[in-house]
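Chain X:
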Amino acid sequence: MDIRLIVENLLHRALPCMAASAVLCAAFPASASDPNALSEEGAAYWQHVTTGDVEVAYRRLLDNHPGAVPEVGDQNFRDTLENAANLARKRARQVNSLDGYNAVLRGFANSFQDAHLRARPTYASAKPMWAGLITNLRDGHWIVSFQDSNYAYRENLVGTELASCSGRPIDEVARSTLGGFRADWGTEAERAKSATWLFVDEDNPFASRPSECTFVKDGVSHTVLLLWNRVPASELTLKLEAHKPVGAAGFGVRRLGKGYWISVEAFWTAAVKVTDDVERMSADLRKADFIIFDVRGNHGGTSSFGHDIAASILGKSFVDARDPETNGGCPTIYRASPENITFFESIAAEFSRDRGAQYAAPVEEIAGQMKSARAAGRTFTGPVKCNSTKTTSRVPSAFPGKLYILTDNACFSSCLTVTNMWRHFGAQQIGQITSSDHHYNNVNDLMLPSGLATFSVQVGLATGTPLMEGPFTPAVIYKGDISDDASVESWALAIAAPK
């Protein structure tokens, strides 16, 4: 069934009968004028829809994800799949609202500890509850970074450290409210990125809202009664974005003293010009005393940009011989399921229409390999085990200077690949610890039957690589505000060119 619901009618427990949807009319008959009856039927509806979408998400993972195949040897993934599905089924029987639905699907996806695998709700509350405070996690300390002046708190809490809420240690509170639904709590960078959401209540029925919290400043503790109000989601999002604990490198190449600063905030289209500029300026770049590659705010994209930028500076032979992605001969293989084949065929058709045949050809080749594998009764397009044949090269680098890569907590997906790559090239990592992911790739994001959320599944497996990529810890850690460009530049320059 495909249920497209009016947002305002989805935000709370009771939904009226809508002539446009026979399913809704069945769930909320006109005779159900008694509020108790309507509430019971509303709960039955949400439990039915949530249970159905959980089962479809489970089957998609089971039938399409490489980790679900015993041959791959990822017992942890298979155990997580069963345990997470069982918990989601149990929770689905308890929901009575859209907010409960969203919590169940988010919790299910979050169990796999890889942000590539996610549930994206189509609708969310237009006015979530917020306590008027934003926190950041710095060196393990929960610090209030923002306090809304529209909230009538008696004291200024900005700069105070959060110690506990409703009698529970703050780490325990954060783990239960954020760790199960918004972040992989075992990864420092993911904890830090989710910290701004600590005082946002999305009406998650499986996470309790604290009534009071204890804040500490200069050794003095203050217990404060929290003030919760509904606020427009659009306004709250802007505030959260303004205080997220990541930087924004931007894009460009510029001279800095006797060195160069190269900025690439995302490995997408905007990185093309930077890559071309680096190639054009390669002779000058190679004469520099140092080069800082700034990837703050980079969530990924296509890692080839990182490879090509390095090749222009260090030399193609040097880079090809040391790139862990190209030196070893271990390919990415794909699970040859009907849904995955359809996914690649649709991408090929899109590339052919929008970019041209040359872009579609590699994707069409993968789809063809998957079809051949399936016709031959094979689960994957190639062997799941690969013995790396890495070679040792004595080709020298074309750049004799000092090389750095500046990262922050945002670094994920292809940014992780590039960070690992540049470390192999001899770059010193500075800044903040990165996030992490698994060796599964190529994400297929599909709408669930209800139309209330999409659920993503990875379809490829990078053979010959560790199960986890990252987190990568800098040799020199920046402990200030990583979004403060001037301070970060001054700090990095002191490392690259000490006086």
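Chain Y:
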Amino acid sequence: MLTGHVRFAYERAAFLRLVELRPGDEVAVGRADGSTAVFTVYGVERLPTESALARASAHTEHPDLRLLTATGYAGPGARSTEAILVSARLTAAR
């Protein structure tokens, strides 16, 4: 599971375009050994934050990747109540 922000300190952050992912899209993850793991998206969900956290950390039978971010800006000291969860399955290694 990777978590990240859409915006941080009013600037664009790593997951700014996460909501644009669709089933069939590929996500490439660079590994420490220089190889790349390629995952194919099979799900994009908008869920209550607590449900998203539980689903993102749930056991899977396959090598899966979960990308998770909170949605919107709730204001100073406030917490977002909704999250975007992208689920992807390992489909290649280069």
